[in-house]
Amino acid sequence: QVQLVESGGGLVQPGGSLRLSCAASGILLRIYTMGWYRQAPGKQRELVAALTSDGRTNYADSVKGRFTISRDNAKNTGYLQMNSLKPEDTAVYYCNSGGRISQYWGQGTQVTVSS
After folding, report:
1. Which of 43, 47, 71, 81 has the most C-beta neighbours closer than 10 Å?
2. pLDDT digits (tens, 9 = 90+) for 55-82
3. 10-19 residue pLDDT tens
4. Cβ contacts of residue 25 below 8 Å, gap of 6+?
5. CA 32, CA 109: separation in Å to the nearest integer?
6. Alpha-carbon Rg for the chain in angstroms
7. What is residue 100's predicted lDDT score, i.e. its pLDDT?
8. What is the Cα–Cα distance from 67 to 86, expressed in whole angstroms?
9. Angstrom distance (rounded) from CA 72 to CA 77
10. Contact call for residues 80 and 68 (beta carbons, < 8 A)
11. How far is CA 114 from the centre of its chain?
């Protein structure tokens, strides 16, 4: 059974930092593309960052230079380091991975950026 479990969300002031984690079981993150998505209230889910199996990264324009996606193969865990957070980064953040046949999602973790 595949599980992706996000953690690390919370309330942070503008300009602050958070690191999200995505602990995987039943799937090897290193052989698939891993993505972080977010969904704000009333908005569609959007791709924030992606990391391919060969180490290539892709970021949404809105987070370039502030967010960094990474993966620890030994721990089978993915990360999203978020710096210089803005109120518009407030959303539920989801981890995603899988192949062409099956895609898997975590339950999401809430990130709230507010003073």
Report:
1. 71
2. 999 999 999 999 999 999 999 999 999 9
3. 999 999 999 9
4. 1, 2, 3, 5, 76
5. 21
6. 13
7. 86
8. 12
9. 5
10. yes
11. 20
